[in-house]
Design brief:
170 residues
């Protein structure tokens, strides 16, 4: 059995390889959307700077939940059906421009993604969202899937074997 500490080390190491994340959202009728955004991981939360012109921004304003997916590149995968991936269910909250969160995170975005951030933050349609993970799943191959709670990786549970739902998670 993988401990919370081992799971955290694996997952955080995997996250550090990415500059962007796939985002799943839905509108008020349940119509799904998938998109992506550059992402910053800071203090056990994810942050995305996105435009109101994008559907996923409106979805997050209407229904403040999102699914995030970090997934191994196909070229790096030994088996296309078993790509390493880390997914999260998150609550979402916009950060106001005059709040401390905005003031402390925008420099992190600028340091990571360059001067484009000055242009984007100068546009009124861009909003910074804080995404707080509530549940996660780490899959490293066939029969190697773990569910956990939050970003402290509480209650790691090996998923697999037995039920159809568990098998499909790998």
């Amino acid at each position: 059995m993988t401990s919370s500490k081992e799971l955290a080390g694996q997952c955080l190491g995997f996250i550090r390889q990415f500059d962007s994340v796939l985002i799943g959202t839905s509108d008020t009728t349940g119509e799904p959307d998938v998109s992506y955004s550059p992402v910053i991981y800071h203090n056990s939360r994810f942050y995305i700077l996105i435009s109101h012109l994008s559907p996923h921004t409106g979805h997050l304003c209407q229904r403040p939940t999102a699914a995030l997916l970090f997934i191994e590149d196909e070229r790096d995968s030994e088996q296309i059906y078993a790509r390493r991936r880390l997914s999260f269910t998150c609550s979402a909250e916009p950060c106001k421009r005059d709040e401390q969160t905005w003031q402390s995170l925008i420099p992190l975005f600028r340091n990571r993604f360059g001067p484009i951030i000055d242009t984007l933050t100068g546009l009124n349609d861009f909003v910074l969202f804080q995404l707080q993970p509530t549940r996660g799943r780490w899959v490293t191959g066939f029969g190697r899937a773990y569910g956990f709670s939050g970003m402290d990786f509480r209650e790691p549970e090996h998923l697999g074997g037995g039920s159809t739902n568990e098998t499909s998670s790998t």
